[in-house]
Amino acid sequence: MTLPFFPTDLFDDDRAELLDIVHRVGLAPDQKFILGERTARFEAAIRDSVGAADAVACGSGTSALTLVLRAMDVGPGDEVIVPAFGCAPLAAAPALLGATPVFADIDPWTMVVDPAAVARLVTPRTKVIMPAHMFSVMADMPELRRIATGMGVRLLEDSAVAQGGTLAGTPAGMWGDAGVYSFVQVKTFGMPGEGGMVVTRDAGLGAAVRMLRNHGQDGKSRFVYHRIGYNSRFDEIMAEFQLYRLPTLPRRLRRRARIGEYYTGRFAELAGCGVLAPPPARDGRCYYVYSLLCERRDELREYLAARGIGSHVYYPAPLPRQPAFAPYTRPGDAWPAAELAARRTLAIPIYPHLTDAQVERIADAVCRFAKES
Ligand SMILES: *Cc1c(COP(=O)(O)O)cnc(C)c1O
């Protein structure tokens, strides 16, 4: 692959700074490698950038979801409404707490959860509605918030892929009772390691998450366990690295958006030839992954590969069709839009260090495939 889907040089430009940080943290007199003052500064920077009451760094995006659900006392007997199309933690986080993930179908074009489907699934057992932003499109948060408020249930916004995006002036992560970010390398604010964050306007919820991430301790008295907690702490080297990279995040997001808009412009004419681009818009977008819907998806994938262009299938099956989560489904349940997306979706490269010429080459190849065959 001359244009791999997962580039191997994500952090090359930051190598000198990263090595320097390893030295600084490693030789610092306090010898703090987790949850030190660097993590606190990183949390404050993210908190202030989105206007949250609290931001709590933790071990991963998955862990962030778990910590919030646990802080909301989600457990056996509770239902959590999640998208039928997405990644494992959406269903696994509630299931591992003993709750039942309930799968809502998606919008066939944007692939985010359909608010009407969510509304139909609310029962007296529903405790949390947990939408996720997908690929480049944010979920319909105004409508989901209206449903959650109207039904008296909590709203947890999985913003793992949308950090830096805004919808109607509100940052991704700030629409519900809490939001989560992930810093795993492929995400828009990814890093060479594992980490996540919870953001919330609810200081009480933030304090509960803070306690749960470090064995139920309150940060003052050591070895006093107020609650049964987790080990989900944050790395000091990564905190300083992320602080260093935060000011340039908007530039990388703008570059992603420009590539996405170029693709969407080029692909507008392909809708009649079986290749559908995401709906054009500016608001409520964050270009983490650029996913096409393609009738002959596997053929397009091979066509691109033959020309040295990598692509990726997120996700090959709806969550309720996975062996792990099928036990949570009920006879007669159906997710036709999620099934269709799983058959048709194909993501093409959109990372910010692609050159204009490379972006053009990728777009040319997709257009030629759609028109030739
Ligand atoms: C990546 C991702 C997660 C999990 O984040 P990790 O840091 O990998 O645990 C959760 N939800 C969504 C929608 C994601 O894309």
Automatic annotation (TrEMBL):
CDD domains named in the record: AHBA_syn
Keywords noted in UniProt: Antibiotic biosynthesis, Pyridoxal phosphate
Active site (record annotation): K187
GO molecular function, one term: transaminase activity
Modified residues (N6-(pyridoxal phosphate)lysine): K187
Keyword 4Fe-4S: no
Superkingdom assignment: Bacteria
Family annotation (InterPro entries): DegT/StrS_aminotransferase, PyrdxlP-dep_Trfase, PyrdxlP-dep_Trfase_major, PyrdxlP-dep_Trfase_small
Entry keyword annotation includes Ubl conjugation: no
Pfam families: DegT_DnrJ_EryC1 (PF01041)
GO biological process, one term: polysaccharide biosynthetic process
Family indicated by similarity: Belongs to the DegT/DnrJ/EryC1 family.
Protein name as it appears in the record: Pleiotropic regulatory protein
Organism of this sequence: Amycolatopsis japonica
Lineage, uppermost ranks: Bacteria, Bacillati, Actinomycetota, Actinomycetes, Pseudonocardiales
